Amino acid sequence: xxxxxxxxxxxxxxxxxxxxxxxxxxxxxxxxxxxxxxxxxxxxxxxxxxxxxxxxxxxxxxxxxxxxxxxxxxxxxxxxxxxxxxxxxxxxxxxxxxxxxxxxxxxxxxxxxxxxxxxxxxxxxxxxxxxxxxxxxxxxxxxxxxxxxxxxxxxxxxxxxxxxxxxxxxxxxxxxxxxxxxxxxxxxxxxxxxxxxxxxxxxxxxxxxxxxxxxxxxxxxxxxxxxxxxxxxxxxxxx
Length: 239
Description:
By secondary structure, the protein is mainly α. About 65% of the residues lie in helices and about 0% in strands. Helix 5 runs parallel beside helix 8 and helix 6 runs antiparallel to helix 8.
């Protein structure tokens, strides 16, 4: 799943304005803080700094870092950590959502110059798979923790991956209105594409690549394109 792509410079596109980053996880943890009535903005910034510290540790240690390592990295007291997060799993869920949200924002910026909604949809699917080319030793943090946390906190993981689904829903809707796609249920189609894209990413992230990512990404896109009744994949520009 998205998580290995860094942000790029925002592209320009007439008539299409990117929505502000929602940072829903940060808003939720701030709402749980006793200090929220005094300074909600400061609470959000504190939550962000804790998640940023966790992301730095995850890059070097994976999910095995300890709470003590986390508070040292973040420069906070243990009670400050528990003021925002009930435990390590709650923190890891916030990290996963932050990584996915950041990747989706980068995808949106990179696709802004594409005028065709089908091409933007294609980009979101294929760019995710091409993230497998990022350097790393073994499965990514997202892959190693996603299924464990989904078993324990399915609603929280679903909320995190919703950022990617929202990207797909938007483009499927625009393409449908333009007569470019004919999905029976745009919302459900976007959800299914999200699940399939995640499954393909996690499979190859764990097992390793047996063919170039470009080929994997193209096969996945062809399947998804056909599933939303777009005709043959060659009908899309650059398909």
